[in-house]
């Protein structure tokens, strides 16, 4: 069994069941404050001098940029200096939220040329991640780059090269990889809680207009308040100003990456972190545009099937991913890791382990045999498998994150910790591309109606 130490597993099971065969279902609070979590920020108790302050800027102050900035500023010793955005209303809002002292600009290069800015949060639409990310690294800035790391497969290696060459901290913003909840699943998996893994299923469903990316348009949106040409840059076709494309960019392949780049990517990064996996070697997807026919050119339902090859950290297994933006049951998101002896589910902030061993006695199906043969069969069966109290019901255990736990705060703590102490981040550019790669290939498979083979080690289409 790969990655499976029999002693660890026995210890874990003992702990899990407390020695009883049928365990009850106690809920164990997960403790925020594991090493590296924001509650244990290494410099939290230290006095931070002006010289030690990390000065940041945010490029792209939309929904995520503002959220990321607010989170980053909760870390001691971090100061916001500037923001760049292409819609004037967001620059006004940034001053309302973060104070009049910050610089606001439409031109992000004015931020990159400032010597007093150490790090940038990059939260523009996906099509500009590689352009701005690479320029920022070249300008000597640490970069917290929102997911997906890149918009196109071809951009992945350039971003990795730029991050390596700069020697600056580069973290991709899939915050789940810093979550204490995912850390618990990783610990359980490694302790052998479910035996040998064979299948994972993950879903991320929604049932609202906002969830399906029909974001509100500001009443003053116009070519005067929006810098349309900078938005297109040389990364998207030159077309006339279109507020829908600017404010609802996710709905168009020219700027976004569909449900796969937007949401599958979180699922890939989460499970790669848990399994120490480099990714799948075969990708196939299907789906369709079922409901949100608002001019978008991406599907609103997508299902993916992925083959993961055996590696040192996990056996070969199959994965299914699903996003459904028209989920009449109300939506929701969850993971299920299935192994020979049990399953781990992750729903919201709760991890549940459920274990059921395969019975030794195989059971029988003899009702179609003549009566005499049934009797003969049963006699030898009962002799071979005498009735023993077996673990007949699954035993269950739950772990729960503290109320209000915020994995993004831990992810930022990890980013700034790396800048201060020169430690490794959880999600560097290679990790980021190994999550973005299969997500982007999911789109390739969908649009080209083909199966895509991927080399997860070399990060290349085969
Ligand atoms: N980690 C997460 O959970 C998470 C959640 C949501 C979004 N995201 C990612 O964050 C990024 C932004 O998403 P969002 O929902 O905030 O979108 P958004 O449309 O709300 O914000 C994007 C902002 O970028 C600005 N922008 C565009 N081009 C720019 C440029 N050249 N210079 C400066 N600003 C520019 C736009 O004006 C807009 O305000 C996306 O890559 C998205 O995938 C991550």
Summarize the structure in words:
With 462 residues, the chain is α/β, with parallel strands linked by helices. It has 2 domains: 6-29 and 180-360 and 389-406 and 429-461, Dihydrodipicolinate Reductase, domain 2, CATH 3.30.360.10; 38-176, NAD(P)-binding Rossmann-like Domain (Rossmann fold). 32% of the residues lie in helices and 20% in strands. An 11-stranded mixed beta sheet has the order 1-15-14-13-12-8-11-10-9-16-17. Mean pLDDT is 91; it is low at 1-25. The structure holds nicotinamide-adenine-dinucleotide.
User: What count of domains describes the coordinates?
Assistant: 2
Tell me about the largest β-sheet. 11 strands, mixed
**Quaternary structure:** single chain
Name of the level-1 CATH class of the largest domain: Alpha Beta
Which segments are poorly predicted (pLDDT under 50) over 5 or more consecutive residues?
1-25
Architecture of the largest domain, according to CATH? 2-Layer Sandwich
Structural Rg: 25 Å
Distance between the termini: 28 Å
Strand content: 15-25%
Helices and strands: which structural class? Answer: alpha/beta
């Amino acid at each position: 069994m790969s990655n499976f130490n029999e002693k660890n597993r026995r210890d874990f099971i003992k702990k899990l069941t407390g020695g009883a065969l049928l365990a009850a279902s106690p809920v164990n609070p997960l403790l925020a404050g594991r090493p590296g979590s924001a509650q244990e920020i290494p410099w939290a108790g230290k006095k931070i001098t002006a010289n030690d302050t990390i000065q940041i800027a945010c490029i792209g102050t939309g929904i995520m940029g503002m959220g990321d900035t607010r989170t980053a500023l909760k870390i001691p010793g971090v100061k916001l200096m500037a923001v760049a955005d292409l819609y004037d209303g967001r620059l006004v809002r940034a001053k309302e939220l973060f104070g009049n002292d910050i610089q606001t600009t439409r031109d992000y290069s004015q931020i990159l040329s400032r010597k007093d800015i150490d790090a940038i949060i990059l939260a523009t639409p996906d099509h500009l991640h590689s352009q701005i990310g690479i320029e920022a690294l070249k300008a000597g800035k640490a970069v917290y780059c929102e997911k997906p790391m890149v918009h196109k497969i071809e951009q992945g290696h350039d971003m990795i090269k730029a991050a390596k060459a700069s020697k600056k901290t580069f973290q991709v913003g899939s915050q789940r990889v810093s979550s204490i909840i995912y850390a618990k699943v990783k610990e359980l998996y490694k302790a052998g809680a479910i035996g040998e893994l064979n299948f994972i299923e993950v879903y991320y469903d929604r049932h609202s207009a906002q969830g399906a990316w029909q974001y509100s348009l500001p009443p003053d949106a116009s070519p005067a308040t929006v810098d349309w040409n900078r938005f297109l840059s040389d990364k998207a076709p030159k077309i006339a100003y279109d507020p829908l494309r600017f404010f609802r960019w996710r709905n168009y392949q020219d700027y976004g990456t569909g449900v796969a780049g937007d949401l599958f990517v979180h699922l890939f990064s989460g499970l790669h972190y848990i399994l120490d996996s480099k990714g799948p070697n075969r990708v196939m997807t299907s789906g369709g545009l079922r409901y949100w026919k608002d001019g978008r050119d991406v599907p609103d339902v997508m299902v993916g099937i992925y083959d993961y090859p055996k590696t040192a950290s996990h056996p070969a297994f199959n994965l299914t991913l699903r996003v459904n933006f028209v989920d009449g049951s109300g939506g929701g998101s969850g993971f299920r890791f299935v192994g020979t002896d049990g399953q781990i589910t992750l729903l919201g902030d709760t991890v549940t382990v459920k274990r059921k061993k395969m019975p030794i006695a195989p059971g029988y199906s003899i009702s179609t045999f003549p009566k005499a043969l049934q009797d003969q069969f049963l006699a030898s069966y009962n002799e071979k498998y005498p009735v023993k109290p077996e673990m007949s019901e699954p035993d269950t255990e739950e772990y729960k994150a503290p109320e209000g736990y915020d994995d993004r705060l831990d992810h930022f703590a990890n980013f700034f910790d790396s800048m201060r102490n020169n430690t490794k981040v959880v999600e560097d550019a290679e990790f980021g591309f190994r999550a973005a790669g299969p997500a982007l290939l999911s789109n390739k498979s969908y649009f080209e109606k083909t199966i895509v083979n991927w080399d997860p080690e070399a990060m290349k289409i085969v």
